[in-house]
Write a structure and sequence with these properties.
single chain; about 650 residues; alpha/beta; Phosphoenolpyruvate Carboxykinase, domain 3; nine-stranded mixed β-sheet; 17 helices; about 25% helix; about 20% strand; binds adenosine-5'-diphosphate; binds phosphoenolpyruvate; binds calcium ion; binds manganese (II) ion
Length: about 650
């Protein structure tokens, strides 16, 4: 028996008798071993939603049966298609759990592909970390992934490896009987073909890699807040960073939705740490991002940049939604207090995330939306903000969203205090924060809204000749939507070191699957039916081209956007510009009037004229690809759109 006098020496006024363990407030833990003590620390999570009297589902099956079905479904996802039996999957962290035979789900031998002999991999177990929580994923990342750190505000800083941006030239789409006619192929199209066989080679490579690991992460989540058009996705990945990224970016299922998840509509195999094989047909580098619409699968090899997963799913939606007469949009979206919805189209770095995150409005989403008969819906459950030069002052809501749970990619921080230096470009200019949408305080949940009132086209004009804002006719809106002009800003795509003029149809050519005119016709019809107004906003240069002028102040752009939202820009005077024929307002509250016409901001008027003509020439040249395509049902719209572009007298 221990001496009892110690408690008095501790100064405990109540006194204490450690022999009596029935005393109230006894400070002694009632365990026999340290291990037992540790086992007390973690309370068991509620295993499932309590089985209420509600007709929850006809999935009224036991916990055990549900677990078994889940494991069988994951086994099927991970099964090799060429061997009789692949690794067995078992749930849980290999480091934390002892092997239990009862947890094993054997891979069903179900595929008709000719099989080859059983290998050692059939004797191996792959642990599945299924829909882990952010806290669990932090621990996995910090324990096992080099370059993972907690920042001073609680975010998880990670490195994406050698690739710090998307690789559009390494994206492949399987061309088969169906997709050959359905999709947009050839010049200007983002869809570089591969055949089914090469896809299977890469798929097997990814599956083998994933199965060779001790553990893989599996996320079962949703896309699209429109309940009637929700898509179930499964993401199998090797890194906690990827799992947390998708946890944040896709819609998070409730416990009950997860129980009833069943079979996914689409599966991503992310084996990004492992390269593709250059000897595989169609491969041109060690990176390959392969989309197979028939199999409803995507394979990632040779890049760990997490944006590939989110944008890969966006491509999928650009295929699936138009089939249902729903328009998929590369745009941000927010809603005013009075219910007015605005869309913000634009390529990477033009300001979709920045401008849709507006303290005075409700955020519906920052990047990917659907416009259906019932209004708009966000595809995602999170935001992916650029954070180069991020400041609390300019972007307070994004700044405050960088806290526990947020993934911070490729940022540089102080090694001791872990304060992030958002100006540091040592790793890349394309530093990113991925956070759940509810980290933005004035989010609209669920992320849906009525039909848009304003359609804002954002262009970051590196030539500095487009006006900060102009009001567009419907045919001008279509012309600029199909053109998709901007300057690519360094970092988001590989190989871009400084702003470069680029045209990307529908402000997202890298993600569209059908011919641009298909999306344009849908947009024209929707804008007409719902009386939406189009605007062109230049968030790029003013007072000269890149290198000479400077980027338009964010505070001015915000004032312009405010004036669009409030409707005040509907009732001001306009002047039409030469060549582009753009209607420029003569005043906008809070913006110096002289900058509204870019000609005023250039000291060298001749240089301005020449640059304007040069850009007009680039527009015309780019649009030539589309002149032979009819837009919508009648040819009149097509003619109007063609006439809505810049006019060069001497061309
Ligand atoms: N006038 C401006 N309008 C919009 N963004 C601006 C402006 N000036 C600078 N920026 C910066 O440009 C970047 C826009 O990026 P982001 O909003 O993430 O674009 P997107 O979501 O379209 O890819 C942000 O870093 C923002 O701070
Ligand atoms: C993630 C991306 O989107 P954005 O830059 O438009 O936010 C991207 O283009 O890789
Ligand atoms: Ca963005
Ligand atoms: Mn985007």
């Amino acid at each position: 028996m221990p001496a009892t006098s110690g408690s008095v020496a501790n100064g405990n006024a109540m006194g204490r008798n450690q022999v009596r363990d029935d005393e109230e407030g006894d400070p002694t833990v009632k365990v026999q071993t340290i291990d037992e003590l540790h086992s007390l620390q973690k309370k068991k999570s509620a295993p499932s939603t309590p089985k209420s009297s509600q007709p929850t589902s006809f999935f009224n099956i036991s916990e055990e049966e549900r677990n078994k079905q889940q494991l069988e479904s994951i086994s099927a996802s991970l099964a090799s298609l060429t061997r009789e039996s692949g690794p067995k999957v078992v749930k849980g962290d290999p480091a934390a759990r002892k092997f239990e035979a009862s947890r094993v789900a054997h891979v069903p031998a179900h595929i008709r592909t000719p099989t080859i002999a059983v290998s050692d991999s059939s004797l191996k177990f792959t642990h599945v970390l299924y829909n882990l929580s952010p806290a669990e994923l932090y621990e996995q990342a910090i324990k096992y992934e080099k370059g993972s750190f907690v920042t001073s505000t609680g975010a998880l800083a990670t490195l994406s490896g050698a690739k710090t941006g998307r690789c559009p030239r390494d994206k492949r789409v399987v061309k088969d009987e169906a997709t050959e006619n359905e999709l947009w192929w050839g010049k200007g199209s983002p869809n570089i073909e591969m055949d089914e066989h090469s896809f299977m080679v890469n798929r097997e490579r990814a599956v083998d890699y994933l199965n060779s690991l001790d553990k893989v992460f599996v996320n079962d989540q949703f896309l699209n807040w429109d309940p009637e058009n929700r898509i179930k996705v499964r993401i199998v990945s090797a890194r906690a960073y990827h799992s947390l990224f998708m946890h944040n970016m896709c819609i998070r299922p409730t416990q009950q939705e997860l129980e009833n998840f069943g079979t996914p509509d689409f599966t991503i195999y992310n084996a990004g740490q492992f390269p593709c094989n250059r000897y595989t047909h169609y491969m041109t580098s060690s990176t390959s991002i392969d989309l197979n619409l028939g199999r409803k699968e995507m394979v990632i090899l040779g890049t760990q940049y997490a944006g590939e997963m989110k944008k890969g799913l966006f491509s999928l939606m650009h295929y699936l939604m138009p089939k249902r007469q729903i328009l998929s949009l590369h745009s941000g979206c927010n809603m005013g207090k009075g219910g007015d919805v605005a869309l913000f189209f634009g390529l990477s770095g033009t300001g979709k995330t920045t401008l849709s995150t507006d303290h005075n409005r409700y955020l519906i989403g920052d990047d990917e939306h659907c416009w259906s008969e019932s209004g708009v819906s966000n595809i995602e459950g999170g935001c992916y903000a650029k954070c180069i030069d991020l400041s609390k002052e300019n972007e307070p809501d994004i700044w405050n969203a960088i806290k526990f749970g947020t993934v911070l990619e490729n940022v540089v921080f102080d090694e001791h205090f872990r304060e992030v230096d958002y100006c540091d470009k040592s790793v890349t200019e394309n530093t990113r924060a991925a956070y759940p949408i509810e980290y933005i305080p004035n989010v609209k949940l669920p992320c849906v809204g009525p039909h848009p009132k304003n359609v804002i086209l954002l262009a970051c004009d590196a030539f500095g000749v487009l006006p900060p804002v102009s009001k567009l006719s419907l045919s001008q809106t279509m012309y600029h939507f199909i053109s998709g002009y901007t300057a690519l800003v360094a970092g988001t795509e590989e190989g871009i070191k400084e702003p470069q003029a680029t045209f990307s149809a529908c402000f997202g050519a890298a993600f569209i699957m059908l011919h641009p005119t298909k999306y344009a016709a849908m947009l024209a019809e929707k804008m007409k039916n719902h009386g939406a107004t189009g605007w062109l906003v230049n968030t790029g240069w003013s007072g000269g081209s890149y290198g000479c002028g400077s980027r338009i102040k964010l505070s001015y752009t915000r004032k312009i956007i405010d004036a669009i939202h409030s409707g005040s820009l509907m009732n001001v005077e306009y002047k039409k510009t030469e060549i582009f024929g753009l209607e420029i307002p003569t005043e906008v509250q809070g913006v110096p009037s002289e900058i509204l016409n870019p000609e005023n901001t250039w000291s060298d008027k001749q240089a301005y004229k020449e640059t304007l003509k040069k850009l007009a020439g680039l527009f015309k040249n780019n649009f030539e690809t589309f002149t032979n395509h009819q837009i919508g049902e009648n040819n009149q719209l097509t003619q109007e759109i063609l006439a809505a572009g810049p006019i060069l007298d001497d061309a």
